[in-house]
Amino acid sequence: MALMPVADALAAVLHSAGGLATEAVALEDGHGRVLAHDLAALRTQPPQAMSAMDGYAVRAEDVATAPARLTVIGEIAAGRPAAQSVGPGQALRIFTGGVIPEGADTVVIQEDTVRDGDQVTITEAARRGRHIRPAGVDFSEGDILLRAGARLSDRDLALAAGMNHPALPVYRRPRVAMLATGDELVMPGSSLQPGQIVYSNGYALRALARSEGADVTDLGIAADTMDATTAAIRRARDLGVDLLVTTGGASAGDHDLVKQALEAEGTEIAFWKIAMRPGKPMMHGRLGAMRVIGLPGNPVSSYVCAFLFMVPLLRALSGMRNAMHHPETASLGSPLSANDQREDYLRAYVSSSDAGRLVATPVDHQDSSLLARLSAAQALIIRPPHAPAAEAGANCQILKLPL
Ligand SMILES: Nc1nc2c(c(=O)[nH]1)N[C@H]1C(S)=C(S)[C@@H](COP(=O)(O)OP(=O)(O)OC[C@H]3O[C@@H](n4cnc5c(N)ncnc54)[C@H](O)[C@@H]3O)O[C@H]1N2
Ligand code: MOO
């Protein structure tokens, strides 16, 4: 059977995936959430012209040449606008954030003045508007500054606060259940019997899903029996998760029961086996409203497939407009031989050349069980099916891995 191309598999995974229900969260809890509606400023910032410096509010014509001697008629602090206006030959003492008084159009910083009682000598000429932040220079009421479908950064929260929003409309987090399968798996810290393998995949996968904003439930490790695998699938359904991610038991072995158990429960399998390395035996389907991604067991395969398929899916379910990964161009740090029919995702180190170009150098062994090299890699080099051999220095496409 012909293997499904990676692009078709990704399209199938993303088919009809969009933002889930919406909810309001307090601004404090908005970091990393995805806005469900465009957000308009509820106020103008700054609402009035304000001083950017500590100094004196003056009329520009009075300080066009220096020295200039002015009479100080009062003081304005931040938060307390002055009742007086500044007339010819007058100045008001002002502090950073103070509202520019009537009549003034310039601020002279205090370093350019000499104070003597109620007189101030301006020692440097200043031009009109100097050190004044005009009303609305940041934004105006009604301006749409944050867009639906964008993940909120730390700076976005400060902006939303400045716009006077105490709460934000966001999409709810996708709920994910993660299940590992395999009789040979034991938890980290165990004393291992011959043939046992330390369970590792879930740690990276859960961290990856959480960093994409998912609520993750760990369903633990199911034994390689239909009963155990079926019970875990039913638990995921009972939890009402949006996505079940399984690892292991995906290939052709006698103990690879995941697909069988999923189908017996009524899962419609959209695909099983894709033209990709690592990760050929990946599967995807739907069991009612629950999406299922069946990842291969090999640690590198499970991670690379999760990065390529689960991450865009979680982004789409989070309501993000921009769910896809965006490859960057780099130059190869070492030569590559011709590729076969499977799209290859090579673990690679990333550095920069003297000319400032990204250089991607494949790690020395690409076997899909090698955790140390996966951890050391910073990117995946994408090799299209049947790509010809490439010299060091040739352009390649890479996807940077998360920190
Ligand atoms: N005859 C064939 N054999 C295999 C094929 C094939 O097409 N024909 N595909 C190979 C490829 S490619 C992959 S990838 C693996 C994936 O197989 P499974 O998904 O069935 O994975 P397992 O057999 O369950 O495990 C593979 C390997 O990874 C270890 N493992 C599994 N889960 C974990 C975990 N959570 N943490 C750490 N390590 C884990 C497991 O012990 C095995 O060593 O199949 C090839 N075979
Ligand atoms: O796809 Mo498997 O991941 O090549 O080892």
UniProtKB/TrEMBL annotation:
What SUPFAM superfamilies does this protein's entry cite?
A: MoeA C-terminal domain-like, MoeA N-terminal region -like, Molybdenum cofactor biosynthesis proteins
Q: Which UniProt keywords apply?
A: Magnesium, Membrane, Metal-binding, Molybdenum, Molybdenum cofactor biosynthesis, Transferase, Transmembrane, Transmembrane helix
What are the transmembrane regions?
A: 300-317
The function of this protein is: Catalyzes the insertion of molybdate into adenylated molybdopterin with the concomitant release of AMP.
Lineage of origin: Bacteria, Pseudomonadati, Pseudomonadota, Alphaproteobacteria, Hyphomicrobiales
Cofactor(s) the protein needs: Mg(2+)
Every MoaB/Mog domain range = 177-316
Q: What is this protein called?
A: Molybdopterin molybdenumtransferase
Q: What is its EC number?
A: 2.10.1.1
